[in-house]
Amino acid sequence: MKERLTIALQKSGRLSNESQNVLKKSGVKFQTRDGKLLIKSNSFPIDILFVRDDDIPNLVNNGDADLAIIGQNELLEKTLSNNLNQINTLLNLGFSKCRLSFAIPEGMNFESLKDMKIATSYPNIVKNYLNKNSINAYVSDIQGSVELMPHIGICDCICDLVSSGATLEANNLRELETIMNSEAVLISNTNIKTSKQQLANTLANRIKGVINARESKYVMLNAPLNNVDVICKLLPGSESPTIIPLENKDKVAIHSLCQEPVFWETMEKLKANGASSILVLPVEKVLS
């Protein structure tokens, strides 16, 4: 019986939902059920563990999970506290993007973080930042409702994850400085068994294809023969467009995989340079 990979995912939340979606688009079929913490795929030899996000780095470092999807912020926090050295980051996945930032109440005068009381769910990252910048401050480890702490006198300042900034605004807080930017990453144990390595590589390549397709578009257009070079240069992230002769000898069709976003401004520039019948189509998967 072929050996099976094990991948750890956060058991709930937006990152969990997006991670499951990426796996399914990569050909890993499975059915989730409430309360089920171990699910076996019937289309790919992999078992999926649904666990707390703060348990994931240790599971991968110890080899209990071969792979995992986790936020960079959580990975760094646990690495700083547990000296994890058996983890390799394979891919940046481009979703669950956020930043870890300091914030203070609106209207509060700010000169320096020196001697401030800082509440955070990421004490190791914050202490590491303060030490690197020779800042003396008191760090309080608070798990949950960090935004409330300044208003009840627990701290002067918080350091928390920010995405849109709406939560800070709703709690009358002002963002000061960003410590780190974070997104979901695919990680692996550095000592995956040789018998599993090919499976891990195959899955990583599939996931990479799904991620690349998110921003990729397939562009088709007609162009005047005398302006092909200019139009090809306007196609974003295009490696080598396909040029197809048309019945009209003065025109050609250009087909191109654009691995960068195609905005309205790009289309308008193409049209201004003679392009016509411009079609921009979604791409489901890209395998380089």
Summarize the structure.
With 288 residues, the protein is of the alpha/beta class.
Structure notes:
30% of the residues are buried. The chain has three domains: 5-96 and 183-213, Periplasmic binding protein-like II (D-Maltodextrin-Binding Protein, domain 2, 3-Layer(aba) Sandwich), CATH 3.40.190.10; 98-182, 3-Layer(aba) Sandwich (D-Maltodextrin-Binding Protein, domain 2), CATH 3.40.190.10; 216-282, Alpha-Beta Plaits. The strands form three sheets. Strands 2-3-1-4-11-5 form a six-stranded mixed β-sheet. Helices cover 28% and strands 32% of the residues. The protein has helices at 14-25, 56-61, 72-82, 123-132, 166-170, 194-215, 228-234, 264-272; strands spanning 5-10, 38-40, 46-51, 67-71, 87-92, 98-105, 117-120, 138-141, 157-162, 173-182, 184-189, 217-224, 242-245, 251-258, 276-282. The radius of gyration is 24 Å and the shape is globular. The two termini are 30 Å apart. The model has no long low-confidence stretch (mean pLDDT 92). It contains eight helices and 15 strands. The chain is an alpha/beta fold and 288 residues long.
Give average pLDDT, whole number.
92
Q: What's the CATH superfamily of the largest domain, by name? A: Periplasmic binding protein-like II
Low-confidence stretches: none
Strand order of the largest sheet: 2-3-1-4-11-5
Shape: globular
Span between termini: 30 Å
N to C succession of SSEs? EHEEHEHEEEHEEHEEHEHEEHE
Compute the number of helices.
8
CATH topology of the largest domain: D-Maltodextrin-Binding Protein, domain 2
Beta-strand content estimate: 25-35%
Gross CATH architecture of the largest domain: 3-Layer(aba) Sandwich
Please indicate the count of domains: 3
Largest sheet: 6 strands, mixed
Radius of gyration over C-alpha positions, nearest whole angstrom: 24 Å
Strand tally is 15
Structural class estimated from helices and strands: alpha/beta
So what's the oligomer here? single chain
Give the proportion of residues in helices. 25-40%
